[in-house]
Amino acid sequence: MFNSMYLSILIAVLCLSGCKKTSPSAPADLPEPVTVHPGTIYHIDMEGKDLYDLFMVVSLQGNVNRETPYLWILKNPIVEYDGPGAMVDRSFWLNTINDREKVAFEDPYLLVRDFANRGIRGCVLYDDDLFGDYVSGARHPQPNDNLVAKLNVTAMLCAHYGAIALTKGQYETLTSVYGVKLPILDNTTTDKFDSWLGCYRYAAEVAYPEPAITSIANNSHYCLGMFDFLVKNKMFIINMKGDASLLEQNFTDEIFDRVPGPSPVYGIWNVTGGAPGEDAFMRYLNSRGKYCIPNFEAFNISYTSGLPPYVPEKSETVRGLTFDPSKKYICFTETDGDNYEFIQQVFPIRFDTPQRGGFPIAWEIASTLCELDPVAARWFYTQIGQNSYVNPVTGAGYYKYPLPEAFNEAYFRVTDEYMEKAKYRTIRTMEYHFESGRPLTDIPHVEGVFCGYGHADPARPAVDENSKSHELYNDKPIFINYSYQDMAQISAYNGPAPAFFSVACVYTPPSDIIQTIHSLSSDWIVVSPGELVDLYKQYTSIQHHE
User: Fold this and answer.
1) For labelling, which of 53, 210, 336, 466 has a CA lying 20 to 30 Å from the CA of 537?
2) CA–CA distance from 479 to each of 126, 189, 335, 442, 508 (Å)?
3) Residues in domain GxGYxYP putative glycoside hydrolase third N-terminal (predicted)?
4) Looking at residue 17, what is its pLDDT?
């Protein structure tokens, strides 16, 4: 196997020697290398650059940032997620950092030159038609599975060797124009990488020879925004197939079983309608004791995860309300905060809503954010106002279907640790039934559970049957969420008091929620999810004594 690998490398080198060289610029045309200082952010704007240059830079970024956070990339989403609407400018998060010096690069090749001595041992060659004519910033059809597998294996080899991903043209340019001579450590342009299974078998043999795989990711598209983090952590990067052959499925099972559970799977299912979609993806992962940390294209997590975790003082303002049996209580929660792209690119836009901070609106913000992106965590906690933060589905990560019993204790322990650090006490499930929430009441820092995503799922209780939407289990309240689409009926609710409504708001502008709050009559009390939990416990205590 190793002999054939080196033969492939030799062939690649010989091919390069016969290629037409780019005319080099005079050495005097190039600026002197920067002097690298720890604590300085070296950033480059990659908007408008092609995906080949972006892949080169993110593979550099992941390797360099493994030991010390240095490199930051400015880039809008590549495979743009078109559900939530407006996103922040690519420079938003860099502009929130005011305690570090910043040095800008314009030329990605100069960035490679100046950081090639920071843990970079060589390069991995890949095909110069891998991305085709893909245009960044718009959703396109799902790429061919084999192409994505070749992209993923190239990234894995870059992580394994401490290498940069280069096409032959980029290799020539670096050598002849910039004077950077990187050894070719591997080459994915050969026919052994023409199949999905061939790619991943090679990666497993070369980069992951140990029986256990420490961490794993799923990338199904050109989601290069998260690749710096995948490379940094040397994750096994797969793209699960929806039409896998028996051999392919057996290999997939083998790889996932080599990752000790319960373990997170970082990344995303097929994002443009391909198979497997979200449900099939989660059903498979959950059945094997895995859960998901969704990320389409949240950039620079390799940088932010290298900073000290953020330690918040609190996640909500509790007003110490006293239960009134004549009132109707309601809370509103903005969902989808388990997805790092929402946190990084969508929620900051919604936080800019006038008067937003003056209401007890809840936001799902992943409790892992304080560790993975303390820059964003600090910003959100600083901007909280009278809002509150809750744990999205279903703790340390997202599972849609119950994990096998053997994994529950360990998963709940990890979730409890993250909730304690983030000062969280409430959590959500995906499904609209009490059975999905009851197991989570075993988690010590969970004081209340909210069940259901927020779409118009027929499984949720009818508005006029509000008493069926809540229960006390294990001395902890559980609520079935209503949808924001139910608000007209909820506002008109004339059933018995007290009443307890939890409304999950999917893709709902905060301005709409504020308008709804203003329209409610005086017998409605708007509270945070945590306050709804507290009030419900007061209510059940009174019921018990009666």
Assistant:
1) 336
2) 51, 54, 15, 16, 20
3) 225-305
4) 38
- Show the tokens assigned to 514: 């504020």
pLDDT tops 90 at residue 5? no
Domain ranges of the chain: 41-304, 328-544
Which amino acid type is present at position 174? L
CA distance 462 to 468: 8
Q: Which helix (H) or strand (E) holds 543?
A: helix 529-545
Can you read off the two tokens belonging to residue 15? 């091919």
Burial 127-155 (b: 16+ CB within 10 A, else e): beebbeeeebeeebebbebbbbbbbbbbb
Contact 375, 304 (CB under 8 A): yes
Q: pLDDT digits over 369-395, tens only?
A: 999 999 999 999 999 999 999 999 999
User: pLDDT digit string (tens) for 296-349?
Assistant: 899 999 999 999 999 999 999 999 999 999 999 999 999 999 999 999 999 999
Question: What is the pLDDT at residue 370?
Answer: 98
CA dihedral 18, 182, 208, 60 (to 10 degrees): -120
- The pLDDT value given to residue 140: 76
Contacts of 128-131 with C-beta under 8 Å, sequence gap 24+, read 128/52, 128/167, 128/168, 128/169, 130/52, 131/50, 131/51, 131/52, 131/55, 131/222
The number of angstroms, rounded, from the C-alpha of 286 to the middle of its chain's C-alpha atoms is 17
Strands (E), 336-456: 362-364, 388-390, 426-429, 448-451
DSSP string for 186-218: EETTSGGGSSHHHHHHHHHHHH--SSS---EEE
| Amino acid at site 163 | A
Task: Give 8's pLDDT tier (boundaries 50, 70, 90).
Answer: very low
CATH architecture of 328-544: Alpha-Beta Barrel (3.20)
Q: Which helix (H) or strand (E) holds 294?
A: strand 290-294
Q: Report d(CA 367, CA 338) in Å as an integer.
A: 9
* Residue 19, pLDDT above cutoff 60: no
How does pLDDT run across 459-478, given as a tens digit for each residue? 899 999 999 999 999 999 99
* Residues forming beta bridges with residue 239, ordered by sequence position: none
Helix (H, G, I), strand (E, B) or coil at 482: strand
